Amino acid sequence: MISAIPDEEYNKLSEAIDETVEDLMRYRGTAAAVVNSFIQDLPRNAEIAKEIVDSFDPEKYKEVVEFAKAANGGRSITD
Q1: Which residues contact 3 (CB under 8 A, 6 or more apart)?
Q2: Is 76 inside a domain boundary?
Q3: Is the pTM of this model over 0.90?
Q4: Each residue of 54-69: pLDDT tens digit?
């Protein structure tokens, strides 16, 4: 099938595809792409955040803080 395409037309198609790929690669680094990616990932990230909040155990957090204080020679870890 490709051999049936005249060389000039094939070269134009190849150049157009290369340019499209380059444009897509440039777009991925733009602010618009980053914002778009953030918006697309937001529902998934919100669900993960909800799971973290739902599984948060204040007692375990307190234990971790106490352990950190002990590892810090009994001094506060927030100084």
Answers
A1: none
A2: no
A3: no
A4: 998 889 888 888 888 8
